[in-house]
Every structure is written in structure tokens, then in C-alpha cells.
Amino acid sequence: TETLAVFGPQRGRRGAELKVMAAVETKAPGYFNDRLREDDDDEFGTKTIVLKPDELSYALGKKGMTRKKLAKSSGCIVEYVGYTVCLSGSKDERTRANEYLGWLFDQLKGPVYVDGWEEREDCTCVDIPQDCVGYVTGARRATLGKIEEEWGTLMFFMSTQMRAQERAQSGRRDFDGSEKLIIFGDKRGRRGAELKCMSALETKRPGYSTRG
Questions:
Q1: Which of 83, 94, 92 is nearest to 38 (CA)?
Q2: Where are the beta strands (DSSP E) in the chain?
Q3: How far is the C-alpha of 125 from the C-alpha of 180, rounded, in Å?
Q4: Residue 44 carries which DSSP code?
Q5: Coil, strand or helix: which one is 130?
Q6: Can you tell me whether residue 173 is helix, strand or coil?
Q7: Average pLDDT for 162-185
């Protein structure tokens, strides 16, 4: 074998290392199977998740877009080495990336509701009138995808249907008929995506975003 030296700050070195490992794994499957280690360091570590073959293509997305938006929105390095997802970054970044990936897979099973979103510091929620949902989403989710790409966010519509018993237990008030679009990412990215959605709403329903 040849030795490849990678110089630079820790985050850059780890990102480059994982990128090289992913490329080698494509050419020689299984080569790094025994070399992927988890590191639970709070400052900078790595978490690994093994995917099933049918899950990998979904987690990767068209031209790798799903992987890229997971990385940008969470601030975590996200790379796929074979069927193993490597999440590298601080503990908070790894936690966010793991949660976001889980919600993406949950959407394959049905509507997703993020419990406790009101207390989270990494999300913004926008009320979208039901008759404007299709307009904001776009054909095959094209509009939302462009906003995610532009602002480095992860966005999806939350299920607003909660059983009466669950609402009573949580003390949560009933929703008002609009759909909840939740946006994950850093503060600047979330605000940019939110304004983009409000602009689209104003085109479809003048006065909705500017009232008050």
C-alpha cells in the first residue's frame, strides 16, 4: 500500500480522510470495514451507522444532495463509507445529524412529527395554508429542494394529526388547519429559507405573510 498524508485542521483532515475512504470502498468493498471506529469525544468525534442496501440510495439522494443537506444543516461531516454512515464533528453536531437522518427515514413510513420542536434552538416552523402547500413544495419537491440547497437547511412538513389523548397528555393546543413546515439548520440558513417560503406565500396569497 501507499501512505497518503493529509495536512490541515482536524475537521478538514477528517473530512478528506472519510472522502478518500469512501472512494476506496467503492473500488475495494470491505477494505475499511475493520478500520471504522466510533469516538465519543465531546469536542470532536465520530458516530457510525450501518445502513441496509435499500436505505443507502435514499440517504445519499440524487447526486448526493441528501447527504449534502444533512451535512450543511447539522454542521456535521457526513460521509458514506460503503454502507456505513460516518458522522464526524462535535457531540451536538453528531446528535443533530443522527436525528435528521432518522427523521428522513421515518418519512418513508408515514408523516413525521417532531415532539418538542418549540424548545429546540436549531429549528424554525412556518405555518403554510393547506391550499398553498403544493405551491411551496413544488413538483416532486423541487421548490423545497432548491431552498434547502441554497440555504443549507433540512425542511419537511410535520404531521399535525395527534390523537386527542396525546394532546391531552402533552397539554398541546390544537393546530389551526394550516400545515407546519419545519426548517432545520443554523440561524442564518433558517431565516433565509423562512423568508423564501414567505415570499412564495405572498405570491400565491397576497397579504398572508405581511399582515400585521
A1: 94
A2: 45-50, 77-81, 84-89, 123-128, 154-158, 179-184
A3: 6
A4: S
A5: helix
A6: coil
A7: 62
pLDDT at 174 over 50: no
Rounded CA separation 74/101 (Å): 10
Surface-to-core class of residue 22, CB atoms within 10 Å of its CB (0-12 exposed, 13-18 middle, 19+ buried): middle
Neighbours of 50 (CB within 10 A): 11
User: 106 to each of 23, 27, 35, 156, 210, how far by Cα in Å?
Assistant: 28, 31, 29, 12, 34
31-40, 74-83, 141-150, 198-207, range with the lowest pLDDT:
31-40
97-to-8, 11, 62, 172, 176 alpha-carbon distances in Å: 24, 16, 19, 27, 30
Cell representation of residue 93: 453536531
Q: List, for residues 89-103, the tens digit of each pLDDT value.
A: 999 999 999 999 999
Tell me how far apart the alpha carbons of residues 104 and 57 are, in angstroms, rounded to a whole number: 12
Q: At 151, is the secondary structure helix, strand, or coil? A: helix
The stretch 119-146 carries a mean pLDDT of 93
Helix (H) or strand (E) holding 56: helix 53-60
**8 Å CB contact between 14 and 93:** no
What is the grid cell recorded at 85?
454512515
If we measure between CA atoms, which residue out of 183, 36, 209 comes closest to residue 103?
183
16 or 1, which is more confident:
16
